[in-house]
Amino acid sequence: MRVTLNMRLSSLADYAVLLMRTAALHCGGTRANAAGLAIEAGIPVPTAQKLAGQLGRAGLIKATRGSGGGMKLARPAAAITLADIIEAVDGPIALTGCIDADGTDCCALDKPCVIRPHWIGVNRLVRDALAQVTLAHLIAAPEEAPSVAAAAVQPAPITSVEAVQ
Q1: In terms of Cα–Cα distance, which of 82, 15, 76, 22 is closest to 50?
Q2: The whole model's pTM is what?
Q3: Would you give the DSSP letter of residue 103?
Q4: Strands 70-73 and 61-64, how do they pair?
Q5: Would you kindly state where each structural domain of the chain is located, as residue ranges?
Q6: CB count in 10 Å sphere of residue 115
Q7: Residues 6+ apart with CB under 8 A from 157
Q8: For a 10 Å CB count at each end of the chain, is N or C smaller?
Q9: Cβ count near 35 (within 10 Å)
Q10: Rg of the chain (C-alpha set)
Q11: Neighbours of 105 (CB within 10 A)
Q12: Residues 101-153: tens digit of each pLDDT
């Protein structure tokens, strides 16, 4: 059986970003219920309710039950990043399974391979790039939002021939 790496967000993480962006549009202290936000964001209501629980446990939204209840951002939109939202839903951001420092969560190889330290760095760069984009960017007009390419973290240059070998 062949497993391919799909470098896409899960549907749940994608919906979480949409839900959080929609909640950010209501910023200013007003609460909105999950069903209303789901309809506004165009996502299924049961999914929004599930996400509300996950995002609340991650400290990204505050929810109040009952009459006059609803949810709102737990922090300002500028303080919540794509990385925060994705990790709240999908766990650590990683392109490979090589995310544990001790190599216990690696692939099927008997021991960690020589490329593993590089994947750890790549995973960190991807997470850092996602951490550069905030909900405030996502609610701004596209021409006002910073370019992700401009915000991307630049890798350190290789400084010796030994590092390449």
Answers
A1: 15
A2: 0.77
A3: S
A4: antiparallel
A5: 11-155
A6: 11
A7: none
A8: N
A9: 14
A10: 19
A11: 13
A12: 555 656 666 666 777 778 788 888 989 999 999 999 999 877 765 565 454 44
